[in-house]
Protein backbone atom coordinates (compact mmCIF):
# COMPACT_ATOMS: atom_id res chain seq x y z
CA UNK A 1 0.00 0.00 0.00
CA UNK A 2 2.84 2.37 0.76
CA UNK A 3 4.33 1.72 -2.68
CA UNK A 4 0.95 2.49 -4.24
CA UNK A 5 0.85 5.82 -2.43
CA UNK A 6 4.33 6.71 -3.67
CA UNK A 7 3.42 5.74 -7.25
CA UNK A 8 -0.02 7.42 -7.31
CA UNK A 9 -1.88 4.16 -7.76
CA UNK A 10 -5.55 3.86 -6.77
CA UNK A 11 -6.10 1.19 -4.13
CA UNK A 12 -8.51 0.16 -1.41
CA UNK A 13 -8.07 -1.73 1.82
CA UNK A 14 -10.85 -2.70 4.23
CA UNK A 15 -11.94 -4.96 7.05
CA UNK A 16 -15.52 -5.79 7.90
CA UNK A 17 -16.28 -6.47 11.57
CA UNK A 18 -15.19 -10.01 12.40
CA UNK A 19 -13.44 -10.54 9.06
CA UNK A 20 -9.89 -10.38 7.71
CA UNK A 21 -8.35 -7.47 5.83
CA UNK A 22 -8.83 -7.39 2.06
CA UNK A 23 -7.34 -5.03 -0.50
CA UNK A 24 -7.13 -4.33 -4.20
CA UNK A 25 -4.97 -2.25 -6.55
CA UNK A 26 -5.95 -0.54 -9.81
CA UNK A 27 -3.01 -0.32 -12.18
CA UNK A 28 -4.53 2.34 -14.47
CA UNK A 29 -5.33 6.00 -13.67
CA UNK A 30 -8.52 6.69 -11.74
CA UNK A 31 -11.51 8.12 -13.62
CA UNK A 32 -14.50 10.02 -12.17
CA UNK A 33 -17.92 8.45 -12.63
CA UNK A 34 -21.17 10.37 -13.08
CA UNK A 35 -23.98 9.77 -10.61
CA UNK A 36 -26.30 8.00 -10.04
CA UNK A 37 -24.38 4.90 -9.01
CA UNK A 38 -25.03 1.82 -11.12
CA UNK A 39 -24.39 -1.28 -9.03
CA UNK A 40 -24.39 -3.48 -12.14
CA UNK A 41 -21.44 -1.52 -13.58
CA UNK A 42 -19.50 -1.06 -10.34
CA UNK A 43 -17.46 -4.18 -9.68
CA UNK A 44 -14.70 -3.11 -7.32
CA UNK A 45 -14.60 -0.52 -4.53
CA UNK A 46 -16.70 2.64 -4.77
CA UNK A 47 -16.22 5.94 -2.96
CA UNK A 48 -19.31 8.15 -3.22
CA UNK A 49 -19.56 11.79 -2.02
CA UNK A 50 -22.21 13.33 0.21
CA UNK A 51 -23.48 15.51 -2.63
CA UNK A 52 -25.76 13.67 -5.02
CA UNK A 53 -24.58 15.59 -8.09
CA UNK A 54 -20.80 15.23 -7.59
CA UNK A 55 -18.76 12.45 -9.28
CA UNK A 56 -17.94 9.22 -7.49
CA UNK A 57 -14.97 6.92 -7.98
CA UNK A 58 -14.69 3.21 -8.68
CA UNK A 59 -11.38 1.53 -7.82
CA UNK A 60 -11.02 -1.59 -9.95
CA UNK A 61 -9.53 -4.73 -8.47
CA UNK A 62 -6.78 -5.37 -11.05
CA UNK A 63 -4.68 -6.97 -8.29
CA UNK A 64 -6.56 -8.64 -5.42
CA UNK A 65 -4.88 -8.97 -2.03
CA UNK A 66 -5.98 -10.84 1.08
CA UNK A 67 -4.33 -12.37 4.12
CA UNK A 68 -3.77 -15.62 2.23
CA UNK A 69 -2.25 -13.93 -0.82
CA UNK A 70 0.02 -10.92 -0.21
CA UNK A 71 2.53 -11.80 -2.91
CA UNK A 72 2.74 -8.64 -5.02
CA UNK A 73 5.76 -7.68 -7.11
CA UNK A 74 5.95 -4.01 -6.11
CA UNK A 75 8.79 -3.37 -8.55
CA UNK A 76 6.46 -4.23 -11.42
CA UNK A 77 3.76 -1.75 -10.36
CA UNK A 78 3.41 1.26 -12.69
CA UNK A 79 4.06 4.85 -11.60
CA UNK A 80 1.58 7.60 -12.48
CA UNK A 81 2.73 11.22 -12.43
CA UNK A 82 -0.07 13.34 -10.99
CA UNK A 83 -0.42 16.64 -9.22
CA UNK A 84 -0.33 15.97 -5.48
CA UNK A 85 -3.48 16.54 -3.49
CA UNK A 86 -3.63 19.26 -0.87
CA UNK A 87 -5.46 19.40 2.42
CA UNK A 88 -8.88 20.95 2.02
CA UNK A 89 -8.99 24.74 2.19
CA UNK A 90 -11.56 25.10 4.96
CA UNK A 91 -13.75 28.15 4.38
CA UNK A 92 -16.18 27.56 7.24
CA UNK A 93 -15.62 29.44 10.48
CA UNK A 94 -14.46 26.74 12.84
CA UNK A 95 -15.04 28.33 16.22
CA UNK A 96 -17.51 27.58 18.96
CA UNK A 97 -19.44 30.88 18.78
CA UNK A 98 -20.10 30.65 15.02
CA UNK A 99 -21.07 26.97 15.18
CA UNK A 100 -23.43 27.51 18.11
CA UNK A 101 -25.08 30.46 16.36
CA UNK A 102 -25.66 28.27 13.30
CA UNK A 103 -27.31 25.64 15.53
CA UNK A 104 -29.49 28.24 17.26
CA UNK A 105 -30.77 29.34 13.86
CA UNK A 106 -31.44 25.72 12.84
CA UNK A 107 -33.38 25.06 16.06
CA UNK A 108 -35.62 28.04 15.33
CA UNK A 109 -36.26 26.76 11.80
CA UNK A 110 -37.18 23.35 13.27
CA UNK A 111 -39.66 25.05 15.61
CA UNK A 112 -41.03 26.94 12.59
CA UNK A 113 -41.67 23.60 10.86
CA UNK A 114 -39.10 23.86 8.04
CA UNK A 115 -37.59 20.48 8.96
CA UNK A 116 -37.51 18.18 12.01
CA UNK A 117 -33.77 17.42 12.03
CA UNK A 118 -30.63 18.66 10.31
CA UNK A 119 -27.02 17.49 10.64
CA UNK A 120 -24.33 20.15 10.79
CA UNK A 121 -20.65 19.30 10.65
CA UNK A 122 -17.28 20.98 10.43
CA UNK A 123 -13.75 19.94 9.45
CA UNK A 124 -10.45 20.56 11.17
CA UNK A 125 -7.07 20.53 9.39
CA UNK A 126 -3.82 19.35 10.94
CA UNK A 127 -0.72 20.32 8.97
CA UNK A 128 1.78 17.60 8.13
CA UNK A 129 2.67 15.02 5.51
CA UNK A 130 0.31 12.39 6.89
CA UNK A 131 -0.28 10.46 3.69
CA UNK A 132 3.04 8.65 4.07
CA UNK A 133 1.97 7.49 7.53
CA UNK A 134 -1.30 6.08 6.20
CA UNK A 135 -0.53 2.41 6.69
CA UNK A 136 0.49 2.99 10.32
CA UNK A 137 -2.67 5.02 10.99
CA UNK A 138 -4.75 2.28 9.34
CA UNK A 139 -3.23 -0.36 11.61
CA UNK A 140 -4.06 1.76 14.66
CA UNK A 141 -7.67 2.05 13.53
CA UNK A 142 -7.92 -1.70 12.99
CA UNK A 143 -6.75 -2.31 16.55
CA UNK A 144 -8.93 0.37 18.14
CA UNK A 145 -12.20 -0.41 16.32
CA UNK A 146 -12.68 -4.20 16.14
CA UNK A 147 -16.46 -3.81 15.65
CA UNK A 148 -16.27 -1.08 13.00
CA UNK A 149 -15.86 -1.14 9.25
CA UNK A 150 -12.30 0.15 8.81
CA UNK A 151 -11.26 1.21 5.33
CA UNK A 152 -8.88 3.34 3.34
CA UNK A 153 -9.11 4.33 -0.30
CA UNK A 154 -6.40 6.13 -2.24
CA UNK A 155 -7.74 8.57 -4.82
CA UNK A 156 -4.59 9.99 -6.48
CA UNK A 157 -4.80 13.73 -7.03
CA UNK A 158 -7.68 13.96 -4.54
CA UNK A 159 -6.37 12.42 -1.34
CA UNK A 160 -6.37 9.24 0.68
CA UNK A 161 -9.57 8.71 2.64
CA UNK A 162 -9.75 6.59 5.76
CA UNK A 163 -12.62 5.70 8.10
CA UNK A 164 -13.62 3.55 11.05
CA UNK A 165 -17.38 3.70 10.68
CA UNK A 166 -20.08 1.97 12.75
CA UNK A 167 -22.78 2.64 10.16
CA UNK A 168 -23.84 0.16 7.50
CA UNK A 169 -25.74 1.89 4.69
CA UNK A 170 -26.82 -1.18 2.72
CA UNK A 171 -25.59 -4.71 2.15
CA UNK A 172 -26.97 -7.42 -0.08
CA UNK A 173 -26.44 -11.15 -0.37
CA UNK A 174 -28.82 -12.45 -3.02
CA UNK A 175 -32.37 -11.67 -1.90
CA UNK A 176 -31.30 -10.76 1.66
CA UNK A 177 -30.60 -7.09 2.40
CA UNK A 178 -29.51 -5.42 5.62
CA UNK A 179 -29.16 -1.90 6.93
CA UNK A 180 -29.21 -0.15 10.30
CA UNK A 181 -30.68 2.93 11.93
CA UNK A 182 -27.93 4.51 14.01
CA UNK A 183 -27.98 7.87 15.79
CA UNK A 184 -27.27 9.46 19.13
CA UNK A 185 -23.75 9.86 20.49
CA UNK A 186 -22.22 10.00 23.94
CA UNK A 187 -18.97 9.05 25.63
CA UNK A 188 -18.73 5.39 26.56
CA UNK A 189 -20.98 4.85 29.57
CA UNK A 190 -20.17 2.07 32.05
CA UNK A 191 -22.75 2.70 34.76
CA UNK A 192 -25.91 1.98 32.78
CA UNK A 193 -27.15 5.59 32.71
CA UNK A 194 -30.29 5.83 30.52
CA UNK A 195 -30.11 7.72 27.25
CA UNK A 196 -31.68 11.19 27.25
CA UNK A 197 -34.83 11.94 25.26
CA UNK A 198 -33.00 14.04 22.66
CA UNK A 199 -30.76 11.15 21.59
CA UNK A 200 -33.62 8.63 21.65
CA UNK A 201 -35.79 10.83 19.47
CA UNK A 202 -32.89 11.42 17.06
CA UNK A 203 -32.48 7.66 16.66
CA UNK A 204 -36.22 7.16 16.15
CA UNK A 205 -36.24 9.78 13.37
CA UNK A 206 -33.57 7.78 11.54
CA UNK A 207 -35.37 4.46 12.11
CA UNK A 208 -38.73 5.76 10.85
CA UNK A 209 -37.11 7.25 7.76
CA UNK A 210 -35.19 4.08 6.89
CA UNK A 211 -38.24 1.80 7.31
CA UNK A 212 -40.46 4.12 5.26
CA UNK A 213 -37.80 4.30 2.54
CA UNK A 214 -37.51 0.51 2.37
CA UNK A 215 -41.23 -0.25 2.14
CA UNK A 216 -41.74 0.49 -1.61
CA UNK A 217 -38.79 -1.74 -2.54
CA UNK A 218 -38.63 -4.59 -0.01
CA UNK A 219 -40.74 -7.22 1.72
CA UNK A 220 -40.51 -8.96 5.10
CA UNK A 221 -38.94 -5.96 6.82
CA UNK A 222 -37.74 -6.92 10.29
CA UNK A 223 -36.58 -4.34 12.86
CA UNK A 224 -34.75 -5.35 16.04
CA UNK A 225 -35.25 -3.57 19.39
CA UNK A 226 -33.04 -0.55 20.05
CA UNK A 227 -29.64 -1.42 21.54
CA UNK A 228 -26.48 0.47 22.46
CA UNK A 229 -23.43 -0.16 20.31
CA UNK A 230 -19.82 0.73 21.10
CA UNK A 231 -17.55 2.56 18.66
CA UNK A 232 -14.15 3.14 20.22
CA UNK A 233 -14.57 5.64 23.07
CA UNK A 234 -18.12 6.51 21.96
CA UNK A 235 -21.45 4.71 21.87
CA UNK A 236 -24.64 5.08 19.83
CA UNK A 237 -28.24 3.87 19.67
CA UNK A 238 -28.83 1.19 17.04
CA UNK A 239 -31.54 -0.90 15.43
CA UNK A 240 -30.76 -3.55 12.83
CA UNK A 241 -33.10 -3.88 9.86
CA UNK A 242 -33.34 -6.92 7.59
CA UNK A 243 -35.50 -7.28 4.47
CA UNK A 244 -36.03 -9.29 1.29
CA UNK A 245 -35.83 -8.31 -2.37
CA UNK A 246 -36.26 -10.57 -5.41
CA UNK A 247 -32.84 -11.51 -6.81
CA UNK A 248 -33.74 -10.14 -10.22
CA UNK A 249 -34.71 -6.74 -8.77
CA UNK A 250 -32.02 -4.04 -8.79
CA UNK A 251 -31.22 -2.13 -5.61
CA UNK A 252 -30.02 1.05 -7.37
CA UNK A 253 -33.17 3.07 -6.70
CA UNK A 254 -33.27 1.92 -3.07
CA UNK A 255 -29.65 3.00 -2.58
CA UNK A 256 -30.39 6.43 -4.05
CA UNK A 257 -33.40 6.80 -1.74
CA UNK A 258 -31.44 5.83 1.36
CA UNK A 259 -28.51 8.19 0.79
CA UNK A 260 -28.03 10.52 2.51
CA UNK A 261 -29.81 9.17 5.60
CA UNK A 262 -31.15 11.38 8.42
CA UNK A 263 -28.09 10.29 10.44
CA UNK A 264 -25.86 12.46 8.21
CA UNK A 265 -28.36 14.84 6.60
CA UNK A 266 -31.69 15.23 8.41
CA UNK A 267 -35.37 14.98 7.63
CA UNK A 268 -37.26 15.72 5.47
CA UNK A 269 -34.27 14.93 3.29
CA UNK A 270 -34.68 17.61 0.64
CA UNK A 271 -35.22 20.41 3.17
CA UNK A 272 -32.30 19.45 5.39
CA UNK A 273 -30.04 18.78 2.39
CA UNK A 274 -30.72 22.31 1.10
CA UNK A 275 -30.13 23.76 4.57
CA UNK A 276 -26.72 22.08 4.72
CA UNK A 277 -25.81 23.39 1.26
CA UNK A 278 -26.80 26.94 2.24
CA UNK A 279 -25.51 27.14 5.82
CA UNK A 280 -22.74 24.63 6.50
CA UNK A 281 -20.12 26.62 4.63
CA UNK A 282 -17.83 23.98 3.09
CA UNK A 283 -17.79 21.00 0.73
CA UNK A 284 -18.00 17.73 2.68
CA UNK A 285 -16.50 15.86 -0.29
CA UNK A 286 -16.61 12.17 0.70
CA UNK A 287 -17.33 12.73 4.41
CA UNK A 288 -20.82 11.34 5.13
CA UNK A 289 -20.91 9.81 1.65
CA UNK A 290 -20.49 6.05 1.41
CA UNK A 291 -17.92 3.49 0.34
CA UNK A 292 -17.50 -0.25 0.07
CA UNK A 293 -16.81 -3.31 -2.04
CA UNK A 294 -19.14 -4.54 -4.77
CA UNK A 295 -18.76 -8.08 -6.10
CA UNK A 296 -21.82 -7.72 -8.34
CA UNK A 297 -25.28 -6.13 -8.25
CA UNK A 298 -26.60 -8.68 -5.73
CA UNK A 299 -23.51 -9.02 -3.52
CA UNK A 300 -22.13 -5.87 -1.91
CA UNK A 301 -21.61 -4.08 1.41
CA UNK A 302 -21.65 -0.29 1.56
CA UNK A 303 -20.94 1.84 4.65
CA UNK A 304 -21.46 5.50 5.53
CA UNK A 305 -18.11 7.32 5.54
CA UNK A 306 -18.00 8.47 9.18
CA UNK A 307 -15.18 8.76 11.75
CA UNK A 308 -13.18 9.66 8.69
CA UNK A 309 -10.21 11.70 7.59
CA UNK A 310 -8.61 12.84 4.36
CA UNK A 311 -4.81 12.54 4.19
CA UNK A 312 -2.59 14.42 1.75
CA UNK A 313 1.07 15.42 1.52
CA UNK A 314 0.25 18.74 3.21
CA UNK A 315 -2.19 17.82 5.95
CA UNK A 316 -4.98 15.74 7.43
CA UNK A 317 -8.58 16.95 7.32
CA UNK A 318 -10.74 15.50 10.10
CA UNK A 319 -14.54 15.63 10.02
CA UNK A 320 -17.31 15.45 12.60
CA UNK A 321 -20.96 16.43 12.88
CA UNK A 322 -24.06 16.02 14.97
CA UNK A 323 -27.80 15.83 14.57
CA UNK A 324 -29.77 18.96 15.48
CA UNK A 325 -33.35 18.60 16.75
CA UNK A 326 -35.70 20.90 18.64
CA UNK A 327 -34.22 19.62 21.92
CA UNK A 328 -30.59 20.30 20.99
CA UNK A 329 -28.39 22.44 23.21
CA UNK A 330 -25.95 24.35 20.95
CA UNK A 331 -22.88 24.18 23.21
CA UNK A 332 -23.47 20.45 23.79
CA UNK A 333 -23.60 19.86 20.03
CA UNK A 334 -20.32 21.75 19.59
CA UNK A 335 -18.67 19.69 22.32
CA UNK A 336 -19.87 16.47 20.67
CA UNK A 337 -18.16 17.35 17.38
CA UNK A 338 -14.96 18.32 19.19
CA UNK A 339 -15.03 15.02 21.10
CA UNK A 340 -15.30 13.10 17.83
CA UNK A 341 -12.44 15.05 16.24
CA UNK A 342 -10.21 14.64 19.28
CA UNK A 343 -10.83 10.89 19.13
CA UNK A 344 -9.54 10.87 15.53
CA UNK A 345 -6.56 13.10 16.33
CA UNK A 346 -4.99 10.53 18.62
CA UNK A 347 -4.42 8.24 15.65
CA UNK A 348 -2.26 10.89 13.99
CA UNK A 349 0.22 11.14 16.84
CA UNK A 350 3.30 8.97 17.27
CA UNK A 351 2.25 7.91 20.78
Describe the structure.
The chain is of the alpha+beta class. Helix content is 24%, strand content 33%. It contains seven helices and 19 strands. The protein has helices at 2-6, 96-111, 134-144, 197-214, 252-258, 269-279, 330-345; strands at 11-15, 22-25, 32-33, 44-48, 56-59, 63-66, 117-127, 149-155, 159-165, 168-173, 176-187, 219-223, 227-231, 234-244, 266-267, 290-296, 299-304, 308-311, 315-324. The strands form two sheets. Strands 3, 4, 5, 10, 11, 12, 13, 14, 16 and 17 form a ten-stranded antiparallel beta sheet that branches. A hairpin with a 3-residue loop joins strand 18 and strand 19 (315-324). Helix 2 (96-111) crosses helix 7 (330-345).
Secondary-structure topology with pairs:
Elements: H1 2-6, E1 11-15, E2 22-25, E3 32-33, E4 44-48, E5 56-59, E6 63-66, H2 96-111, E7 117-127, H3 134-144, E8 149-155, E9 159-165, E10 168-173, E11 176-187, H4 197-214, E12 219-223, E13 227-231, E14 234-244, H5 252-258, E15 266-267, H6 269-279, E16 290-296, E17 299-304, E18 308-311, E19 315-324, H7 330-345
